[in-house]
Task: inverse folding
């Protein structure tokens, strides 16, 4: 049972270029979360997606950043016109959280991918 | 939104001693509290979690306690070993909302 997969593991971009980060959740997981981790800092929530829906994007900058999780294929975090301050590790996590079910003890355990380390030159 | 504070930011102990890391949260609706261990250059890995209907949970040398009234929870590691050295993150979540809010991390160093 493969875990959460992310690619590429390392990405180097020049200022102004676009960065595309991919995340394939664990089998059976339909909920994906993206976090950013600056060097020697904690994990900051960016966006939470379900298939074809953005549930919560409150942590994602309004400009240059976008995320999607299509019906088929991986989730993609896209950063346009990258700047040096975008250099960070970007982690994706997936969870088996149940649909918002009444009476269910939903499980929010999140499984993290290995991360993509983005370096902007 | 939710705010999670974690203390201390660094912790150094001798091998065999205990280590305690504390976190507080602000949103009384939060009901799920995981702890993650992150080694240098690697992904965060869940080591233990606790839900709001439980006050304490133990797994071998690791235990977590939760005080919902005071809105704080703690990680306890007993008989520490050098391989416990890592950054530890607490988090809080409201399970139906999905996202977790993380503390800023504690760098634990266990000296042999």
Result:
């Amino acid at each position: 049972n493969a875990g959460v997969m992310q690619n590429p593991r390392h990405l180097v971009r020049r200022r102004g270029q676009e960065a595309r980060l991919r995340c394939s959740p664990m089998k059976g997981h339909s909920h994906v979360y993206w976090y950013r981790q600056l060097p020697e800092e904690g994990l900051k929530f960016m966006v939470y997606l379900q298939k074809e829906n953005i549930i919560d994007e409150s942590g994602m900058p309004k400009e240059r950043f976008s995320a999607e999780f299509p019906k088929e294929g991986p989730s993609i975090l896209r950063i346009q016109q990258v700047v040096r301050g975008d250099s960070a590790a970007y982690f994706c996590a997936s969870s088996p959280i149940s649909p918002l079910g009444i009476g269910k003890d939903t499980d929010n355990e999140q499984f993290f991918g290995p991360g993509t380390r983005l370096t902007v030159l | 939104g939710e705010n999670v504070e974690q203390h201390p930011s660094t912790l150094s102990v001798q091998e065999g001693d205990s280590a305690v890391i504390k976190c507080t949260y602000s949103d009384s609706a939060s009901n799920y509290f995981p702890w993650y261990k992150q080694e240098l250059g690697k992904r965060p890995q869940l080591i233990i979690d606790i839900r709001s209907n439980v006050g304490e949970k133990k797994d071998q040398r690791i235990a977590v306690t939760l005080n919902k009234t005071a809105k704080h929870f703690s990680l306890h590691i007993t008989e520490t070993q050098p391989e416990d050295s890592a950054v530890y993150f607490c988090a809080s979540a409201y399970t139906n909302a999905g996202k977790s809010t993380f503390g800023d991390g504690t760098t634990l160093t266990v000296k042999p």
Observations:
- The interface with chain A takes residues 1, 6, 32, 34, 36, 42-46, 49, 51, 89, 93, 95-105 of chain B (CB under 8 Å).
- The CA atoms of residues 66 and 73 of chain B lie 4 Å apart.
- Chain B has a mean pLDDT of 93.
